[in-house]
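Go through this:
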Amino acid sequence: MFAIVKSKGRQYRVREGQQIRLPRHDQAPGEELVLDSVLAVGQEDDTRVGSPYVQDARVICDVLEHGRGKKIIVFKKKKRKGYSKKQGHRQDFTAVKVRSIEA
């Protein structure tokens, strides 16, 4: 069974037992995270699509850890003007494991 969930403006396709990285959430490691914004749920032959969300569907996850992603470099330059700017960025994430999909 799979589900397409929305978390903080991004969409993820998840299965039971899968580990994914979501944008930073407030739950502590070891706590439960419930994602109620389920856009679609189903199996290979039967899929339900919500408008915009599927009624009474939710994905229950266990929070594993919080962390920061790899550094990316943001570089800006204007030719012949002597302007250049180099900046790094690391995105915060919450690693979760999908425990169950209820539909």
Summary: The longest strand covers residues 58-68. The chain has one domain: 2-102. The CA atoms of residues 41 and 47 lie 6 Å apart. Residues 2-102 form one domain.
